[in-house]
Amino acid sequence: MSTPTQINNAPFLSLSKDGEPEVVEDAALAETSAAWRMLKDAAIAIRELQVKDGSIPDPSTGSGIEGAHDAAHDHVAALIAGIRALSPAFPHDAEYLAASVRDFERWASEGFGIPDFLDSLVAFQPQQHRIDGIRHLVVFPMYTQNGSSDRLVEALIVETIWPEFIAELEAGDYANRLFVSLRLIDFTPGYDTNSAVLFPETVAMRKIPTFTWGAIFQDREAARYRRVVRAASEITKLDLPAEAARMLEDQDLTEKTFVMWDIIHDRTHMRGDLPFDPFMIKQRMPYFLYSLEELRCDLTAFRESVAIEKRLAARDDLSDAEQEMLEHASLVQYAVIFDRIFRFAITGSRVRNYDGLGGQLLFAWLHQHGVLHWTDTQLTFDWEGVPESVIALSDAVNDLYWRSIDRPKKAHWLAAYELISNVLAPNPASVWARGLSDEVLAGLPKGYTDAVLDDEFPLSMFFEALEKKMRPVIESTAGIRAGDE
Hints:
The protein is an alpha+beta fold. Helices cover 49% and strands 9% of the residues. The chain folds into 2 domains: 3-212, no CATH class; 233-476, no CATH class. It contains 17 helices and 9 strands. A hairpin with a 2-residue loop joins strand 8 (372-375) and strand 9 (378-381). Helix 10 (320-343) crosses helix 11. The longest helix has 27 residues, at 287-313. Mean pLDDT is 93; it is low at 1-15.
């Protein structure tokens, strides 16, 4: 028998006689349970007490909010009660959830300093449960990429997207044991943003472990793709091919397309003729190097999808999973092009926007190679020639990487700039475009990086006009999820 109780002006919750939320045993019911509402409310409340590094200052030290630690203890108690009540619904995460409770207890007992959730992070291993539809409860103090830079408590319920054809793809030529594909079910404010990833490196912890997984929310990727491409197609009068148009009407189809794209993209970061490790090592270098690395991975996903489509289309004995793989191989090609040119190119600020630059580069390359046309204020493609043109850009980037192995770092940077500036017009004020001085050329790499303008390659007139018309649409995708149509 449960008793209705109200906590912090929250809706009435169903609690047991001892004041704890009732145990939840079915993960499909988690997001509607009293336990989840208690946990989520407590997470939202404790965030108001945290500062940027995740700690909660004690007012006795001259900072902090009066009574903050007393309130924080209450919120942690509610968080722990929620986790314990929800744990039976997530038996595959039992070790992690138990460790999470211990981490919260230690954080509170030690006075709410900078949180350390290394133990629970190491115990959380979602890549070991890549089963379509399986859910996870995730609670960490963390920042959210493209969301909040503050390490605040976030709580999520997520669901794995892992259709059979993706399992076969990953088990074959595209092994990626660290990759996890997720769907957002419910979340705290750090994910009511543009963030579409869950990465272990964002968690507050005392030291950096070996990372064993990385997750992307394909439902968010797909939902914002559908909204943005639908609007951009109308604005540019683009007559979408029938296959591409299907994606705008089918969230599930688009989610699976993004899973296929991302699993190939993600594994590409560590494969190929690489200039040692071009992206993952934390180092300061011109942002256009990051543009080329992200674009290289997307172009690889495109060209591999072309190869998969060609190979499977030549057979007449396809299994159901292979038939679905063939269907999505074609869709990945449309997704890479339209997401890159319609969303990436005009999303975010003009301050070292490396994804934006990659979108601009792809658009200009296709235009200059005669397969994309902006004529009579209408956008058209010569679709038969698009694969060859995209693969040619992929070849150009791959050749840059191959040659870089024999080049000094600064020479590689200059060669990368030359590749981009042969396609995109640099900022008229660019020192790089005019030619770096002998002093900079002979100096440390820092001088090269400092000379790069925040907006080294400004938007073209086409994108300037498109951005103004698309701005409300782009802004509306913050926090989007499946069903937000």
